[in-house]
Amino acid sequence: MIRTCTKCKRVSRSLALVLAMILSSACQAQYAPAAGLPGSTAISASADSIVMWAESCMVVRGPQDIAVPSSGYASAGDSSQAVGPAGTNTIVSLGDGGVATLSFAHAIVNGPGSDFAVFENGFALGSPQQAFLELGFVEVSSDGQRFVRFPAIDDTQNTTQLGNAGTMDAATLHNLAGKYVSGYGTPFDLEEIKDSAGIDINHITHVRVRDVVGTLSDTFATHDSRGRKINDPYPTAFASGGFDLDAVAVMHADGLTSVQDANVISACVYPNPVSSRLYVQTYIPSQEASLSVRSITGPVVQTVSFAGAVSIDMSALAPGVYEATVTTAFSSSTHLIVKQ
Ligand SMILES: [Ca+2]
Ligand SMILES: [Ca+2]
Ligand SMILES: [Ca+2]
Q: Ligand 3 centre and the CA of 242: distance in Å?
């Protein structure tokens, strides 16, 4: 028979408590947790703090599998799908190491707290903390030439490769786009790179997202700012492989205090050039607007009223240059469109 005295119980209980505290601090994640959890820094796509969305995007795709040259390139979506609000115009997939460079109607400036946010299409898997996430480095520029990377940190274990169903905890990630699930942007604070040479944190004109390859192989691994290998789902050898860029939101832009001010550009209009359907998406979701399309040399060919989004068939129109004018209660913008 095992006999325990009250004193022993007390001692063993406090020992267990100390052990539990040590263990929990060892496992305690250091950075902001998943969207919806206390302390999360996730930016909701509908946050009032957003004053502007990216106006244009250029993508250089990476391969579906960087270690297999015959795998071809990622191909899902196109660059226009990273323009305008998150969640409305789906995504463009970057592939392994692929790069998207976005520009804006106004310069991004360093205000209090985070200044812009990058949206990917990750999703929770298994628990609120664990999610399938694909990560990207984020770099900014004041001239489109010289880019400075935010110092990225990944504290995910990196001894076992995350496969294409692997999950991560946002709390182990910092300054990596894709940290938060679909509908929530990962914030970036220009203050963190204020001492970098060659950029002006109060005049950022370009944001670049570069897919983290994520393999642990020495040949193709990508590393965080401490030189540690980043473990991100790999291989993702399909058309939608790599970072899936949804949108870039800006919270601090030169001269803007609300998204309505940003509506110098009322909407995004894509694709351009166009051969058949032309899509229009207002910057403010569900906003009442009208679209008028006219030939640069002739009369109005089509006018339509809509709320938020519309598409028109241009396939029957003669090739040439057209003006698509989007008018809302706040503004009007005209986009030159090439019909092929
Ligand atoms: Ca800031
Ligand atoms: Ca990747
Ligand atoms: Ca993804």
A: 7
